[in-house]
Design a protein that fits this description.
Blueprint lengths: L1 H35 L2 H32 L3 H34 L11 H21 L2 H31 L4 H33 L11
Helix pairs in contact: 1-2, 1-3, 1-4, 2-3, 3-6, 4-5, 4-6, 5-6
Length: about 220
C-alpha cells in the first residue's frame, strides 16, 4: 500500500514539473516577443494559458485526493501541501507571461524605441530564480532554495531602477508615455515572477525542513 502511495507522490511531482516547464516557456516566449516585437509569439502565450490553467486544476485534484485517501503525515504531508502552493505560484507565473504579452501587443501600435530599462536582463534574473527554485524542489535542497531568497533583492532593485528611469523619461518626453508605461508594467510583471520564485523556494524549505520562512525569515 505504501509503495502505491509513494508512486502517487512521484506522479504528482512529475506532473508539477510538467506545469513548471509550461510556465517557464510562457515567460521565455513573452520576453522573446518583447525583444522582437513579434506579435505572433504573443499569440502562442495566449493559446498556452488554458492548458496551464487546466493542468493546475488536475494537480490540485491529485493532491487533494491523496490527502483525503492516504491521510499522510510529517514530510509526506508537507510535500503535498507544498505542491499545492507551488502549483498556484506556477499558474501565476503563467499569468504574468500573459500580462507581458498583452503589453507587448499594445506596444506594437507604436514605434519601437530604445527605453532606459534592460527588460531582458531583468527577465533573465527572474527566470533564473524560477529555475533555481524548481531545481531545489527536484533535489529537495533547502540550501539551494535559501539562495533563491537572497536573489529577490536584486530583482526588486532592478524594478525600482526601471521605475525611476521610465518615470523620468515620461516627464522629459511625454510623447513616449505609452511605450514607457507598458515597459514599466512589464518590469513590474517580472518583479512578480521573482516573488513567485521566492514563494516556491520558501515552500521547498517548508517541505524539507518543516520551517516556515515566509515573510523575510530566511534560514541560516
Amino acid at each position: 500500500m505504501r509503495v502505491k502511495f509513494h508512486q502517487s507522490l512521484d506522479d504528482l511531482k512529475e506532473k508539477l514539473l510538467v506545469m513548471a516547464g509550461m510556465a517557464e516557456q510562457a515567460i521565455q516566449r513573452s520576453i522573446e516577443a518583447y525583444s522582437t516585437r513579434d506579435l505572433a509569439i504573443c499569440e502562442l502565450v495566449f493559446r498556452a494559458e488554458p492548458s496551464i490553467n487546466r493542468l493546475e486544476r488536475e494537480i490540485d485534484q491529485m493532491a487533494l485526493d491523496l490527502l483525503a485517501m492516504e491521510q499522510p503525515m510529517a514530510i509526506d504531508l508537507r510535500f503535498i501541501l507544498s505542491v499545492i502552493r507551488i502549483n498556484a505560484d506556477l499558474e501565476r507565473v503563467g499569468d504574468q507571461a500573459v500580462n507581458i504579452a498583452v503589453r507587448v501587443r499594445e506596444m506594437g501600435a507604436f514605434a519601437n524605441i530604445d527605453l532606459p530599462v534592460d527588460i531582458p536582463k531583468l527577465a533573465s534574473l527572474s527566470s533564473a530564480m524560477v529555475r533555481k527554485s524548481l531545481q531545489a524542489f527536484i533535489e529537495g535542497d533547502a540550501e539551494l532554495a535559501n539562495s533563491v531568497l537572497r536573489l529577490d533583492d536584486q530583482v526588486d532593485e532592478m524594478n525600482d531602477a526601471a521605475f525611476y528611469a521610465l518615470s523620468s523619461l515620461i516627464k522629459e518626453k511625454p510623447e513616449l508615455t505609452p511605450q514607457s508605461l507598458n515597459a514599466l508594467i512589464i518590469s513590474r510583471n517580472l518583479e512578480r515572477v521573482g516573488d513567485h520564485a521566492t514563494n516556491i523556494a520558501e515552500d521547498v524549505i517548508f517541505w524539507v525542513r518543516g520551517a516556515d520562512v515566509r515573510h523575510n525569515s530566511a534560514i541560516n
